[in-house]
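[Q] Does anyone have a clean structure-token version of this?
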Amino acid sequence: MLKSIGDALIAFGPVGVFVIGFFDSLGVPLVGGVDFLLIYLAANTPHVAYIAATTATMGSILGNLILFRAARYGVRRFARDEAPEGKRRKFRLWFQRYGLLTVFIPAVTPIVPLPLKFFVISAGAMNTPVGRFLGVVLLARVIRYYGEAYLGVRLGEDARGFLTHNAWNIAAVAVTMALVLVGLVRWYDRRRVEA
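[A] Here you go.
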């Protein structure tokens, strides 16, 4: 089935990747998602691999932005304050410090199933600035999708196996990045308090 979807994707080229990236980021579950299909397209039509990575990034940003905005306006309009104020405030403060990191890590990590949609919705609900949110998603998606296009061009169909085989290594890199960024945030906060 994935091969037939991949063949249809090649027929639509980068526009197909845009549509799939949009719906995937909006929250519509897609088997294989953008990652495998982008690799398939890059392996079979390398001359459009980086254009496809660009359109996948654009579709993903648009889908995430709509989900983010829906969460922001939905919370304002329909949310009921069920949690005690202390717990809400504590979570809000934590999310202000580390929230965009929780968006970046699953957005940049292929294969390993991390719950990006939950963090996108949380970012919208916590009134994260739109520019910062978009910057984090853009950086993560550029790294991820251009990396996959590169692997697809270089390794062909073997790129999927490479990602699957190295899933734990990719997860370890993501966790290491998270720990380094948490350390940098804490270091910055200490220096700011000392000043």
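[Q] Thanks! Anything notable?
[A] The first helix runs from residue 2 to 12.
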